[in-house]
Amino acid sequence: MPAIQIKKLTEKDLHTIWQIGFTRENPEWSKYNGPYFEEYQSFSNFENFLSSKEGQFLRNGQKVQGIFIENKPIGMVCRYWIDEKTLWLEVGIVIYDDNY
After folding, report:
1. Does residue 100 fall inside a structural domain?
2. Is residue 75 part of a domain?
3. pTM
4. What stretches of 21-87 adopt beta strand conformation (E)?
């Protein structure tokens, strides 16, 4: 069984995430990314990805962590409050690598 880790994404990791998750039109993962089905966007270069809403979101180490298999980033897990008063916490998991 391969080792699975959850940890902060580095810029090198983000480059891999961009390559596997944001360079193609309609990747498989975007078909299951509800309720954000209409928000997917591909990026032809890494710099545009980093400055995008998606890139900025993935850089937020307080809310987003990478999912790694044998030190290779394959996806992300995130959390954020919908309403702290009612303890409504939203959690998201996305696997960008089609092999997983």
Report:
1. no
2. yes
3. 0.90
4. 64-69, 72-83
